[in-house]
């Protein structure tokens, strides 16, 4: 039965840049394990001949013409930014990579 | 800075066999981004070309750019790839401020094009086939500026500033299969492949592929294995190698570095490396201690792309003559060697020469000007040939004036210089500067008489049968007319006046 371990939750939290306390890890690991278990029951009824679904609608090739549409103004684009400088989004020091 | 041990290139190749993998990103020249209608125009003010979709704001929905898909198929077909009948986009999840969505919309296990090849020609004419693994669609990231560090680098920076105008611009990533068997020519093959790919992309009209502007970027994966072993060694990945020369240098450097590590009993770390233009070296970047965990999953906001076979065939039928085929045809038409053709290609002179010939110039003249005077000027002013302020039609007009005897070589050069200096088209320059060859006998006659009168010694020699000495008198005439005389006519006149048979 597919489930999720506490270590996997910790790993995902790190990848998602979420800081979780020990008790939160326990808590979420349990909840996520339940959810995954519930979803996994789908495969009990879906046999080999049912491919995994990524889109509920049988649509393909929805495309748009290569035509320019108005963008936001820089003020609008930056309106939700916690910090800005020189009309750019200001972000804290980027660590661990070059 | 730590000193990196290198083995000599010859010794490295004596013991090891290089295997390469090249990943090239091409920024498409579409008017709008891959998944939204924001303009892709360069040079716009920071963050003036963004919208809720490319900023990843909640509720915004992407729609794929039809020209982006068509361009991907064009590239795939030109690379002899199969085109997927059905494929999806995928989210590549990672947290880095250059992507405001916190994922890059890319393709994972269902690329639009796969299993192709590109034949590349080396300088001596030998052809090498590079197999293509896949070409897939994705989007570019935003641009970061690092503030507070010593040299604008990330190390020591206190914070970074992000401009998302570039985020979402369509990219096609083209990945080769492992390139084996190139041996000592591996760096040359890498360069030739990127050069050929660039020509191809330009010929397809899907991007200008200017490497110096980041419209085409290359990552060089390289590993060594001892001769006779089939299993690949551990590879390093040198990121963002952004000129043809750098691609060759990076491959060469990595061969020498790997060989030094391996031959002294060390092991190669699987890591990304940074290339340094100044000295052609690479330095360690990020170590990939674990397989990257991007948690790809099918993009739920975009429906699958299923190019109909009719559409694919329509695109195939519209492909232009491929650059290598065209080059070989032109080479035969022009009657030049492989080596000369390679120089013409490297100088970016093929298209200007073709356009000049189309405008009426003889092939050898068109070649002479673009590879001579104009190449020199471009070089000196740091411009590409097609950026020079002279058109192929203007060059053709100069060759026409030369053929008609109105200009000699020296004057033609002055005309070209004047056109480059913005003095107008060739005819205007000729008029304004009075640069016509003097061939009417009246004006020439005076100069000829003067030359004869002033060079009695030479005249004696000519009369005595040494007709070759006439050159000295022609020289005097040219000097007196400041180069504007018709040298052939001057010679005739001199001999006539001296009563000597030519």
From TrEMBL, chain A:
InterPro entries from the UniProt entry: Asp/Glu-ADT_sf_sub_c, GatC
Stretch list, region Disordered: 70-98
Molecular function terms from GO: asparaginyl-tRNA synthase (glutamine-hydrolyzing) activity; ATP binding; glutaminyl-tRNA synthase (glutamine-hydrolyzing) activity; transferase activity
Keywords per UniProt: ATP-binding, Ligase, Nucleotide-binding, Protein biosynthesis, Transferase
EC nos: 6.3.5.-
Pfam families for the chain: GatC (PF02686)
Catalytic reaction list: L-glutamyl-tRNA(Gln) + L-glutamine + ATP + H2O = L-glutaminyl-tRNA(Gln) + L-glutamate + ADP + phosphate + H(+); L-aspartyl-tRNA(Asn) + L-glutamine + ATP + H2O = L-asparaginyl-tRNA(Asn) + L-glutamate + ADP + phosphate + 2 H(+)
Enzyme class: ligase
GO process terms (BP): glutaminyl-tRNAGln biosynthesis via transamidation; regulation of translational fidelity; translation
Keyword field contains ATP-binding: yes
Family to which the UniProt record says this protein belongs: Belongs to the GatC family.
Described purpose of this protein according to its UniProt entry: Allows the formation of correctly charged Asn-tRNA(Asn) or Gln-tRNA(Gln) through the transamidation of misacylated Asp-tRNA(Asn) or Glu-tRNA(Gln) in organisms which lack either or both of asparaginyl-tRNA or glutaminyl-tRNA synthetases. The reaction takes place in the presence of glutamine and ATP through an activated phospho-Asp-tRNA(Asn) or phospho-Glu-tRNA(Gln).
Assembly, per entry: Heterotrimer of A, B and C subunits.
Database matches in NCBIfam families: gatC
Protein name per its UniProtKB record: Aspartyl/glutamyl-tRNA(Asn/Gln) amidotransferase subunit C
Source species of the chain: Streptomyces antnestii
């Amino acid at each position: 039965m597919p489930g999720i371990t506490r270590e996997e939750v910790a790993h995902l939290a790190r990848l998602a840049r979420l800081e979780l306390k020990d008790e939160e890890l326990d808590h979420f690991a349990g909840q996520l394990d339940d959810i995954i278990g519930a979803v996994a029951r789908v495969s009990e009824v879906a046999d080999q001949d049912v491919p995994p679904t990524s889109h509920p609608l049988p649509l393909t090739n929805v495309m748009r013409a290569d035509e320019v549409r108005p963008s936001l103004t820089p003020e609008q684009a930056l309106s939700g930014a916690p910090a800005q400088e020189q009309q750019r989004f200001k972000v804290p020091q980027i660590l661990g990579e070059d | 800075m730590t000193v990196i041990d290198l083995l000599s290139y010859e010794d490295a190749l004596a013991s090891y066999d290089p295997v390469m993998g090249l990943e090239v990103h091409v920024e498409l020249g579409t008017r709008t981004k891959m998944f939204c209608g924001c303009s892709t125009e360069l040079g716009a003010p920071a963050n003036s070309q963004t919208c809720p979709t490319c900023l990843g704001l909640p509720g915004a929905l992407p729609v794929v750019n039809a020209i982006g898909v068509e361009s991907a198929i064009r590239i795939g077909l030109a690379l002899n790839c199969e085109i997927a009948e059905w494929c999806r986009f995928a989210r590549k999840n990672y947290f880095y401020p250059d992507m405001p969505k916190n994922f890059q919309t890319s393709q994972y296990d269902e690329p639009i094009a796969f299993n192709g090849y590109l034949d590349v020609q080396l300088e001596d004419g030998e052809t090498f086939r590079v197999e293509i693994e896949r070409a897939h669609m994705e989007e570019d990231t935003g641009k970061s500026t690092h503030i507070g560090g010593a040299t604008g680098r990330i190390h020591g920076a206190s914070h970074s500033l992000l401009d998302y105008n570039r985020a979402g611009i369509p990219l096609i990533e083209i990945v080769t299969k492992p390139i084996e068997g190139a041996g000592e020519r591996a760096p040359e093959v890498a360069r030739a492949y990127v050069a050929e790919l660039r020509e191809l992309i330009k010929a397809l009209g899907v991007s200008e592929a200017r490497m110096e502007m980041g419209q085409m970027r290359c990552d060089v994966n390289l590993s060594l294995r001892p001769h006779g072993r089939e299993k690949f060694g551990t590879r390093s990945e040198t990121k963002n190698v952004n000129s043809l020369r750098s691609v060759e240098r990076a491959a060469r450097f990595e061969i020498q570095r790997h060989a030094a590590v391996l031959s002294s009993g060390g092991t190669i770390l699987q890591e990304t490396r940074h290339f340094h233009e100044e000295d052609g070296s690479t330095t360690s970047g990020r170590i990939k201690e674990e397989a990257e965990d991007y948690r790809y999953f099918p993009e739920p906001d975009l429906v699958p792309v299923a190019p109909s076979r009719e559409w694919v065939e329509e695109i195939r039928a519209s492909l232009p003559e491929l650059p290598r085929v065209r080059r070989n045809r032109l080479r035969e038409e022009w009657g030049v060697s492989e080596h000369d053709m390679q120089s013409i290609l490297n100088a970016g002179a093929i298209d200007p020469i073709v356009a000049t010939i189309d405008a009426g110039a003889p092939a050898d003249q068109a070649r002479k000007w673009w590879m001579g005077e104009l190449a020199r000027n471009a070089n000196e002013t740091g411009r590409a040939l097609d950026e020079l302020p002279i058109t192929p039609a203007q060059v053709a007009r100069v060759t026409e004036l030369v053929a008609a005897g109105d200009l000699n070589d020296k004057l033609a050069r002055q005309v070209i210089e004047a056109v480059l200096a913005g003095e107008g088209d060739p005819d205007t320059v000729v008029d304004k500067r009075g640069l016509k060859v003097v061939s009417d006998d009246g004006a020439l006659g005076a100069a000829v008489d003067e030359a004869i009168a002033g060079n009695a010694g030479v005249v004696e020699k000519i009369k005595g049968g040494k007709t070759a000495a006439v050159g000295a008198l022609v020289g005097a005439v040219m000097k007196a007319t400041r180069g504007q005389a018709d040298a052939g006519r001057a010679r005739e006149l001199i001999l006539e006046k001296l009563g000597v048979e030519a």
